[in-house]
Design brief:
Layout lengths: L5 H6 L1 E2 L3 E2 L6 H15 L11 E4 L3 H10 L5 E9 L2 E8 L4 E6 L15 H15 L5 E4 L2 H10 L10 E2 H8 L7
Parallel strand pairs: 3-6, 4-7, 7-8
Antiparallel strand pairs: 1-2, 4-5, 5-6
Length: about 180
């Protein structure tokens, strides 16, 4: 597990950045990395978490994914933007399976290999809008205030209240760390 050199933290310097390069908050990064190293050393082999990220290619992919987790109330949601326009949305109901869903047809980005027809995109967008209106839905996001504005501009009707924002939660726990 890589980390910052503890001696540099004590001296407050870095060979690349010069004196005073590491702020006090860097101490938390090192503590986290050391804790991870202790956890990893409990096993003889390197254990990579078994995770599955699926990219939706058809509306049926989205429908099946949401059906598979229809009994789940909590979903994490994140978007990627290009020039402040949402290009894809990712959803996960657990930490092992997620789906990335294109919101725009960007054939130039994929050399036209994965272009989704407009008719399919329309079904995907309607399916997502219906999903966001599920009464029991509890959304979790990172800086979700930003995502909410972008998704509402895109036409989605999101829940009035967001269940959790991980950036705000992290900032409440460690106010000295950067929010990004």
């Amino acid at each position: 597990i890589p980390t910052l050199p503890p001696s540099a933290l004590l001296r407050g310097e870095s060979r690349k950045l010069g004196k005073g390069a590491y702020p006090y908050s860097a101490r938390f990064y090192v503590l986290h990395d050391i804790q991870r190293a202790i956890e990893e050393s409990a096993h003889n082999e390197y254990r990579i978490p078994d995770r599955n990220l699926v990219v939706a290619r058809h509306s049926l992919d989205v429908i099946n994914f949401l059906s598979q987790y229809s009994s789940c109330e909590k979903f994490t949601c994140d978007i990627e933007v290009a020039h402040s326009i949402p290009t894809c949305l990712s959803l996960a109901a657990n930490s092992y399976h997620a789906m990335s869903i294109p919101l725009l047809d960007l054939p130039h980005a994929w050399n036209n290999r994965y272009a989704i027809p407009w008719s399919e995109l329309l079904i995907i967008l309607r399916t997502l809008d219906n999903f966001f209106q599920t009464p029991s839905l509890k959304l979790i996001g990172q800086n979700f205030k930003f995502d909410t504005k972008k998704l509402e501009m895109f036409g989605f009707r999101l829940p009035k209240e967001i269940y959790a924002d991980t950036m705000i939660m992290m900032h409440a726990l460690y106010p000295e760390l950067p929010k990004s």
